[in-house]
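Human: My hope is that you can spare some time for a protein that puzzles me. I am handing you a single protein, as its sequence and its fold in token form. Could you go through the record with me and say what the backbone is doing? Take your time, and here it is.
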Amino acid sequence: MSIKERVRINLPSRKPQLWENLPLALARRAERAFRTRFDPTWFDRSSEVGLPALGFRMAVVPRYSFIDGFIFSFGMYEISGTRFLQAVLMPGMTVVDVGANTGYYALLASRQVGPSGRVHAFEPVPDLASTLRRNVELNGMRNIVVRPEAVAERAGRSMLHVSRAASNSGLSSLVMNKDVDQLSEELEVETIGLDDLARDLDRPIDFIKIDVEGAEELVFRGATRLLAAERAPAILFESYAVAPLATRLEGYGYQVRRLHYSIKNGIELHPTTDEFDDLFLGYEGINFVALKHPEACRIFDEICVRSRERIPRALRWLAAWA
């Protein structure tokens, strides 16, 4: 990559997670340079790092280029998903995290919903679930329930394709992923449907986050009653083939939007078919949000306006010019 290209991708208009956390990002780069100079193995070991803007700590392996690397470098993972959860989650809510990995979104949700809320974090990969429990204990969070099942169409057992890709531990799935076929092994796991979960809980589910690497259809098939309910939960989900999923959700009365974020505009919610300047291609998932409400469009607009107003004017001015 040329110097010109490197400068461009790090401009305020191109990398909001850097500029909104600039002092931390500079400190982390200095820390990495210092530590690896005297201990080259440090980069490959698990370390506990703070996410001061979010109010919790996590165990990460800095060398992992996706989730852990971003958490270490910027004190957050996906800035668009982070800002969306901060905008919509309120004290007392019940959140379901499907594909919780090591717990970034579960921990963020826990802080947002507070002691009166609940977070049910599902992670069937044993190594990830172990780190997830460690992160929950590290922060003393009592409102998170860690579940080892894979969320699917129904309760039972299924084969999970467990990713062994060193750079990204979050590629495991109930469906075969062509990108990681050569780096996966099969593990039989218990499954549960979201309708089963909703029936067993003593409170309604308000929000669902889904990151299951291509198995989204299985999750939605197991949630027909939940999605059809008048008070259906808001959803944040990752997908690289959204059209059939959007059609299914729209059939239940949902409005679906593509989620994006920039310093200039804050949260952006685009129609799924729109083309726009995606700042995160290649290093953040393609995320969508779905809301079932008679005034969903107005609520989407309000979320975007409030998000933009929370960004300091100086940063917005800087992003507009650089």
In short: Residues 48 and 58 are 5 Å apart (CA to CA). The chain has a mean pLDDT of 92.
